[in-house]
Amino acid sequence: MDNAEIAAHLEQLADLSEIAGENPFKVRAYRAAAARIRDLPTPVQELLREGGLEALEQLPGIGERIATKIVQLLETGEIEALRKLRERVPVGLLDVLAIEGVGPKKARAFWQQLGITNVDELERAARAGKLRTLPGMGERSERKILAAIERWRAHQGRYLLPDAEADMRRVLAAIRETGDAHRLEAAGSLRRRRETIGDLDVLVSASRSDRIMEAVRALSREVLGLGETRAAVVLRSGMHCDVRVVDDRSWGSALHYFTGSKAHSVALRGLARSQGLTINEYGVFRLREDGTAGERIAGDEEPEVFLALGLDYIPPELRENRGEIEAAAAGTLPVLIERADVCGDLHVHTTWSDGRESIETMARAAIERGHRYIAITDHSARLAMTGGLDAKRLREQWREIEAAQRSVGDAIRLLRGIEVDILEDGTLDMPADALAELDVVVASVHSHFGQDLETMTARLLRAIESGRVDILGHPTGRLLLRRDPYAFDPERVFAAAKAAGVALEINASPLRLDLSDTLAKAAHEAGCALVISTDAHHPTHLDFLRYGVDVARRGWCERRHVLNTEPDPERLLARLHEGHR
Description:
- The chain has four domains: about 5-155, Orthogonal Bundle (DNA polymerase, domain 1); about 160-245, Beta Polymerase, domain 2 (2-Layer Sandwich), CATH 3.30.460.10; about 250-330, DNA polymerase, thumb domain (Beta Polymerase, domain 3); about 340-575, Metal-dependent hydrolases (TIM Barrel), CATH 3.20.20.
- It is built from 24 helices and 17 strands.
- The protein is of the alpha/beta class.
- The longest helix is centred in the last third of the chain and has 18 residues, at about 390-410.
- Helix content is about 45%, strand content about 15%.
- The radius of gyration is 26 Å and the shape is globular.
């Protein structure tokens, strides 16, 4: 069991405890422990092997009681306290908690006062007008919950990238352990780096498949199909996984075929037919006069598939039939940005707001990752739940930034910044004179997401045109699988950002990935500058940068489109401030 699975059990323990009305301090302790374990760079099982229970107890936020529960989980497969809670509290309420706008207190009220135990019952109660009988609920609340349920259902069966990657790692490791795989790779939407994943596709080349099929079966909670060369299973997480075994000679064509997307593959097959060829998972073949496949001319390696059609190699991230085939034919594919091109992070939180580590700790973690600079951008005061900064505390924070800079020396440049709230009327939650003294001002929307398109667009334009904003943070406000983007006019916002010299953020948090790939492409095509930042609240979150690079690559971004590919912090700031400072 890996850290993510352990954290998921602790999160469920926290959720069910809160719904059951247990001690709020205990609930907070479970949540803090879950976050600590999820972010832990070392596997818990390795910690226990090397240092025993004491090593686990010494982790901040864990302690003896929670450490004992974790050991119990690893030894028996369950936490006794969680098992007992599942007997008391309907487990279907965990799905109710996943509905936007429903927290543990509301879920508890729905259950105890209306007998609601799952999403279907919640929907029926909302349609029947029963929710409005509860304090603080009305007809408008019922409409919002019904809309949220509809969104929740649309997202069922989708997984965030880190969750999909965790399952993929387990599958690949199990196949490798058989010793029978010659070549092994993730295919499908995970290889194309889509923002959410529906199922996993794994390609293996091997001379025998029986032990590989058995290894995959052992990871599953349900077997949908199991043959000599294909396994279709449901993994313990609930994610579907297809594993295909091919011979070595078919590797390249099979990898292309099973990577997709379907739209890309259909378009490529059409191009092949126009050239008297046909493509399938076994190779590229000449077409006979009767329309059947004849001589095989390519397919051992994936680049051969494209070369046979007179195309440049198309990176997996671009294979969505959005013009990549035409660009490959014309020799005009972009030279996509790579992780190594990004030199720093311009959106980092610390314990001065809702981050979990100090400025110096975040700085040293950034140094370990090769960053040349990071911007410390804690929240402004309006976002009260984060303990955000007013102008007085902001200036106090500068002293700690200066002290941290002295401590780390020239290894990294620490930039003074803030994530300032864009208030409902478009003004900024910080006096202009304080903002003027900062290196980096990220401005973001954190409230009033339901404004109509015109109101939200005007709100964003006012902030962009204030002359105090350097970066528009997570510009659409979405939370993947949880909250849809707010309504606004991207064309007008991008035009204003370009005119004002305001960069648009690709927020690399896997819960956001905001801008999306299509909007990132539209933004740089409109002439806007982009930055890729992690919105890190813990040192390990700095590693999210790769997800932002995935989005940028899917958005056809080159190094030149992204400001924080600049290695020199002074030149970066000059470019960041250009046009409005």
